[in-house]
Amino acid sequence: KQEVTQIPAALSVPEGENLVLNCSFTDSAIYNLQWFRQDPGKGLTSLLLIQSSQREQTSGRLNASLDKSSGRSTLYIAASQPGDSATYLCAVSEAGKSTFGDGTTLTVKP
Amino acid sequence: GAVVSQHPSWVICKSGTSVKIECRSLDFQATTMFWYRQFPKQSLMLMATSNEGSKATYEQGVEKDKFLINHASLTLSTLTVTSAHPEDSSFYICSAINPAGLVLGGRRETQYFGPGTRLLVL
Which residue, among A7, A23, A34, has the nearest Cα to A97 in the 3D structure? Predict the structure, then answer.
């Protein structure tokens, strides 16, 4: 059974810092890995999707990497802003269905 | 990108009533849809896999008689929470995949998530 772990569970940083969120998974036979953002009481916002054949994806200040063989992914956020405060979820997809991590709750202080 | 909608976005009901949640793929045909739920301060957990024209497959621990899933068309799946109780209060999110191939530049394995339905049972 696939298990997804995210570290740290919570992170508080001052505005402007670069930061890294970590995600690990136990079964490397995945189709893709996706990073989401979730604001309190809201749904999921897809940030980056990495196919199993890819190593990384970039969007603006976000960069996600994937090392399928070691079962790891990182989400790098550059020059963090207070608006980045949210919970970040990592999800791996196998045969269409996703297994989610518990998330990292990020607080960026002005 | 591909769009998946859910209706209603939120619902409050009395204990014992049944609630139906709809999940629609708006610009592609989804032969498979998935239903997830998220309890407060927890992550999303897969409840069931819904295949068009066949019975849903439920994850361990999910009561199939309580959470009725119908996937009668290629663009619509419904989740009915029967005789809802306060412990069923949760955030329900559906997702859809298009296994037929490329959709709006995406890969066929890509899931498209709905915005979610927040259920509060009093």
Answer: A34
What is the number of CB-based contacts under 8 A between chain A and chain B?
53
A50-102 tens-digit pLDDT: 988 899 999 999 999 999 999 999 999 999 999 999 999 999 998 778 999 99
Q: Is B109 close to A32, i.e. CB distance below 8 A?
A: yes
Using a CB-CB distance cutoff of 8 angstroms, which residues of chain A are in contact with residue B111?
34, 93, 96-98
Tokens for A39? 């604001």
The count of other CB atoms within 10 Å of the CB of residue B73 is 13
- Residue B29 Cα distances to B40, B68, B76, angstroms: 32, 21, 9
User: Considering only CA atoms, which of B115, B114, B108 is closest in space to residue B31?
Assistant: B108
User: A32: which chain B residues are within 8 Å (Cβ-Cβ)?
Assistant: 107, 109-110
Tell how far CA A65 is from the center of its chain.
Answer: 9
Measured CA angle at B26 (ends B12, B29), to 5 deg? 120
